[in-house]
TrEMBL record:
GO cellular component terms given for this protein: cell surface; extracellular vesicle; hyphal cell wall; yeast-form cell wall
Residue ranges of every copy of the Agglutinin-like protein N-terminal domain listed in the record: 3-52
Pfam families linked to this entry: Candida_ALS_N (PF11766)
Any single GO BP term: cell adhesion involved in multi-species biofilm formation
Name of the featured protein: Agglutinin-like protein
InterPro entries: Agglutinin-like_N, Agglutinin-like_N_N2, ALS
Organism this protein belongs to: Candida albicans
């Protein structure tokens, strides 16, 4: 689930926080994707953090 998204205008960046839902059997799998309506948006893959 998307839980938070914020814009930092001075850096011209958007930070987004995703949190996985609670799963009945303790795990799940799937795909997380991004889409935008503007052609000039780039995803900075060098700034990705994952945790459990």
């Amino acid at each position: 689930y998307l839980t938070d998204s914020r814009v930092t205008p001075s850096l011209n960046k958007v930070s987004t926080l995703f949190v996985a839902p609670q799963c009945a059997n303790g795990y799940t799998s799937g795909t997380m994707g991004f889409a935008n309506t503007y052609g000039d948006v780039q995803i900075d893959c060098s700034n990705i953090h994952v945790g459990i």
